[in-house]
Amino acid sequence: MAIGPLKKVAAKRAVDACGQLELSAEARKLLDDQVSPDAYLDRLIEKEQWADAIRVLAFALPKREAVWWAAQCVRIHLPADAPPKNLDALKSAEAWVYKPTDENRWAAKEAGEKVGYDKAACWVGMGAFWSSGSMVPAHLPKMEPGPSFTPGAVAGAILIAGSQEPERATENFKLALEDGLDIANGGTGKRRARSEGAAPAPPGTPPANR
After folding, report:
1. Residue 57 has pLDDT above 90, yes or no
2. How far is C-alpha 161 from the geometric centre of its chain's CA atoms?
3. Which label site among 5, 51, 105, 176 has the fewest CB atoms less than 10 Å from its CB?
4. Residue 123, class by beta-carbon neighbours within 10 Å (0-12 exposed, 13-18 middle, 19+ buried)?
5. What residue segments make up the domains of the chain, in order of their start?
6. Does the pLDDT at position 202 exceed 60?
7. pTM given for the model
């Protein structure tokens, strides 16, 4: 596939981008100490290791771009009759992407938890919440999230959303990767959202274009 260098990915080696990631046995065989993130993603895609590729890209992207990616992917799969709290969680996470304040971070958590931990939209909100700061209120000793928390939530959200239609899961994962790679190269990742009629993202310029 020859993805090529990814503008938004700072790591020079794939092992640095996803060293804490639990990979499948097949994906681990394809990883070595020298392969770059883009070349490693090429290997995973060639071997049709879609879920592993999504996890690797979620770890490799900066946290704001990763949360943005998850929000756009989950939007596409929201059914028309989904409870409004699902969309509220996505909007809250996107608000944090545009303005990553601590207030917006906590708002994303609260909106995500209202959805329920079995839903993809919840994990988009938690991905924003776990991006930085403390996981407990300010009057308690600071408890920082681990470095794998946000990318793990992002990958989980995308995989849950794409698996809602089991017969289309593989195709959904491929399309999600296309959007994620677009973001990794400085795009908005909203190409499918426009073409498939998903709800538009909130106004403003996503971090990919800043």
Report:
1. yes
2. 11
3. 5
4. buried
5. 14-60, 64-198
6. no
7. 0.89
Find, among 64, 116, 66, the residue nearest to 86 by Cα. Answer: 116
Which secondary-structure segment (H or E) carries 108? helix 102-115
Residue with tokens 């274009």: 209
Token pair belonging to 192: 């499918």
pLDDT in tens, 77-133: 999 899 999 999 999 999 999 999 999 999 999 999 999 999 999 999 999 999 999
Report d(CA 151, CA 146) in Å as an integer: 10
What is the number of H-type helices and E-type strands within the chain? 11, 0
Write down the residue that tokens 């799969």 correspond to: 77
- pLDDT of residue 61 exceeding 50, the answer is yes
Question: ∠36-154-167 over CA atoms, to 5°?
Answer: 95
Residue 187: its H or E element: none
Query: What residue type is assigned to position 1 of the chain?
Result: M
Burial of 20 from C-beta contacts in 10 A (0-12 / 13-18 / 19+)? exposed
Provide mean pLDDT across the span 175-183: 95
Phi, psi of 54 (to 5 degrees): -65, -45
**Distance separating alpha carbons of residues 150 and 208, to the nearest angstrom:** 18
- H or E segment to which residue 92 belongs: helix 84-98
Residue whose token pair is 């900066």: 62
From residue 29, alpha-carbon distances to 23, 32, 85 in Å are 9, 8, 41
Band the pLDDT of 206: cuts 50, 70, 90.
Answer: low
